[in-house]
Model the fold of this input.
Amino acid sequence: MPRSAAVLAVLLLGGCVVPVPLYVGTIGPGFGGAGAAAGLKDTCGADDLQVFVGQPYAELQAYGVPVGARVIRPGDAVTEDFSATRLNVRLDAGGRVAALTCG
Done:
């Protein structure tokens, strides 16, 4: 009987957990630069750089890549830590800018 009481207590307490969204009010992975249109806040400057999507990475480099930006090439290992002020520059296999996101 004590074991069933413990299981019941765990089940009841589990219902009290409120999930917290991982990305609140920021542009997260997968949003590209569409954050402004979706009412999300651009915290890394990705929206201003969307003109470079589809362009060779060299074009963005010539314009100036923000300090601390993370350039992600196909096959690169990427940490899952989130920094709202960090720009992620995703490149395709041809070296063109595929996406610019905050994170």
Q: What stands out?
A: Residues 17-39 have pLDDT under 50 and may be disordered. The first strand starts at residue 70 and ends at 72. The helical segments are 2-14, 57-63. The chain has one domain: 20-102.
